[in-house]
Write the structure tokens for this entry.
Amino acid sequence: MQSANDTCNQRDVRSEGKPGVALRRAITSTDVARRAGVSRSVVSTVLNGAASTARISAATQQRVLEVARELGYRPNIMAQSLRRSRVTTLAFLSRYRERWWDAAPLHQILPQRLASLAARAAEERGFHLIELHSEAAHARSPRDLTELILSRRIGGVIVDIPHEPEMTALLAAGLSAVQLFQPVEAIPSHSIIVDPVPGVSAAATHLVDLGHRTLAFIGHKSAHPVIRLRLDAFASTLSAAGVTLQPAHIVLCEEWTAAAGYRALHRLLRTSPRPTAILIGSDNLSLGVLQALYDARLRVPDDMSLVTYDDLLASTLYPPLSAVAQPFEEMAVQAVETLTQDLRNEQPGQAPFVHIAIPSRFTVRRSTASPPETSRDDSSLRRGD
């Protein structure tokens, strides 16, 4: 995610045989010692607060502290405890951790699915995973949250859509953490994202092949690169096929809700020409789009073709929606594997950071067909199974 000139002086490399997995070596006390021109034992003594008893000069102490801060070095507190006894507990922090009880049931489906998959993956590796919902919601600050995690003897944390203050606190405490979906790029840690390009590009190509030339996109206003890439991939694939995605046919919502999807669809119905196919940025938005189409007496896919993103609910709706699927199971397994490898490492804190981009996948179902003005006699343009 970061360049080779990032503030932590970490190096990006590619692991052989694992496309899409980038590794960055973590800063160690040896790096600090080399830069400061002192021994590793001096660095350890200074950072452990024992410099006065070892008679290390104030100037040397200051130099070590400045170099450690410049390189972004954080002593691995959890690794020190692992030398005394093995930690086998992981934690999952949901994206709704701040006010979990206020999250609509439909919104809880994704993090609950992810947590259950991660729990199974942890169990298969001899670890236990707990979900910190109410505990995290009652934490008054990132520091309180970190102290809670340390008190539970949790060695690694899966953070579903992270925030910078809490990630800073977790890593400062020496905890191993994996950022999911929308990593904070300024924070050096493990991260796993879903690459929307393969699935979105396949969906756009599918719609163009069906004969659609007036298409629309409903998404979210988030400026995060991973979210923006959904729209960018859709527009660029259409452009390569000679189809222009008009600005009036792009609706970016404030929330990932059914209500927002409902409003977005009605906005698109007022445009001229009206789109014949829509890529929708989440299953929740799609629920609102389906309701709005029903109210407008428009049928899917006879009057409007739909493709959703997520694929958590898509196959259970009517008609079953063609979908760009986020590979939740693979993401959960990769997150758990990354953390357990950290905790089993004989030299914790010195292994590279892992950055994984898992490709999205496109599945054709019954919500896409040729546009209304196209002849239905050509079987090649009929809806997918």
In short: The chain has a mean pLDDT of 83. The first helix runs from residue 29 to 36. The CA atoms of residues 33 and 40 lie 5 Å apart. The longest strand covers residues 352-359.
